[in-house]
Each structure stands twice: as C-alpha cells, then as structure tokens.
C-alpha cells in the first residue's frame, strides 16, 4: 500500500470515529416495529449446541455488564477491527470477511479444496452468499488485505447459516470469537459498504434467535460477511442479511449469524 493510500485510510478512520460518536444515539433503538420482519430461517440447533460452541472467554459479572456500554477507546477498537477485516470480490459481486484467530481446524468441502489450501495458514470467515458465484471456480475469489490481494482458497460453506470459510496466506493477526451475547448489548459492524472503504457502524443487539442476532446496526450492500464485535472487540457474529425499504435504503434492522454457528459444519469444534 502506498504512503498516500495509508494517509487516506487514516484520515477516513478519524472522520468515521467522529461520525460514529455523534451518531451512536441515533443507531440505538431505531427499530419501532417487528411485524414486517420476515421469520428467520431455522438452523441446525443440535449442531450448534453449547457442547459444540466456539470459544467463549470466561468473563466476570462486571465484564458482562460492561458489554452494554461502548468501549472507552472506541477509535483504537475501530482501527484494530478494520486491520483484521478483508475485502472479498467474487465475479461481479463483493463483500467483507474477517480473519478468525481460532484453535479449531476448518473443515473442507472436498479433498481437492483441502489440497489447494495447503500453505495458507489464516482462516477468513464471510457470508456464503458473498462467494456463491465462485463455488464452481474457487480460484476466481479475490481477497484483499490493506488494499492488496493475497493468495486465497475457498474451503467450505454452509447454506443454512449462510457462512463460508476461506484460507489465505498473510501474516495479519486475527479476531477472537465470543458466545457471550445479551439482548441490548452494544455492537459494532465493520464492512465495505458499496465496495468503497472499510467503515464501522454502531448499534445494539435487539433480539436473539437460535443462531441469529437481530441488530439495529446500519448495514449496506457490501457489508455482508463482515464482523459484528462486542465492546471488548470479540466477534459475536458475522453480518449475513440486511433489509432495504422501497427506496433501497437500509432500514437499520439487520441480521448477523452467531460466531458459534461456525461449529455447525465449518469448524471441527469437537475433540
């Protein structure tokens, strides 16, 4: 990335932080009616039970209560989350993904994909619909970190949870996952809206269903597959759906799939 590119990115982050702080009150509690929201798809409950849940750090009562408050160093968290998120292009589509620092090994769609993934050490999580057009030609997927393409290989996907995994070759650190979700807790999504630039939006978890989190975080086309983090910076979900009004404007009521849902088919969470 050029010096000019880094300068533009830093300035964009500073501007976004200021906007986020001003808009936090706006995002919270935007939902006023739920009767028009479609019924969520039921996922494999047995496969994502507590016994197979992804890692969930032990937290004290104070820590859990703190999840409802925004982080003290919001700008630092935004910069950290952005640095561990990726841009994904597939045919004519685009979306977001995030690097997952997990002890669990990934599963593979077939032996061919497993062999092709050799030497690619980082695991990227995204939404399945982001990579749909590349399933027949996995080599056509492009993953960018810090605006530069890195070697990548599609690993697997799961239709019911709308999640997919990709292996990449890079030295970037990843994000931790968490199962600690509470209704009303603070949440932030990071993504590439309209394939323009990584940016954050803030809101709350307003409903919890099976493997899905209903959020009032603003989501636009291109945000799909991005991380939804709590106030500690841990990923509680992956953005998978957004609702638009008749004018194609985000309604502010959207869906993220819980991080633990990766254990349904995409991670070997059992010993």
Would you summarize the structure shown here?
This protein is α+β, with helices and mostly antiparallel strands. It has helices at residues 3-27, 61-66, 74-83, 111-116; strands at residues 85-90, 93-100, 122-127, 142-145, 148-150, 152-158, 163-168, 186-191, 199-209, 212-215, 227-229, 235-244, 250-258. Strand 6 (152-158) and strand 7 form a beta hairpin.
Could you outline the blueprint of secondary structure elements for this entry?
Layout: H1 3-27, H2 61-66, H3 74-83, E1 85-90, E2 93-100, H4 111-116, E3 122-127, E4 142-145, E5 148-150, E6 152-158, E7 163-168, E8 186-191, E9 199-209, E10 212-215, E11 227-229, E12 235-244, E13 250-258
Antiparallel strand pairs: 1-2, 1-4, 2-3, 3-7, 4-5, 6-7, 8-9, 8-11, 9-10, 10-13, 11-12, 12-13
Descriptive report:
- The protein is of the alpha+beta class and about 270 residues long.
- The chain is built from four helices and 13 strands.
- It has a seven-stranded antiparallel sheet with strand order 5-4-1-2-3-7-6. Strands 8-9-10-13-12-11 form a six-stranded antiparallel beta barrel.
- The chain is globular.
- The model is unreliable at about 1-60 (pLDDT under 50).
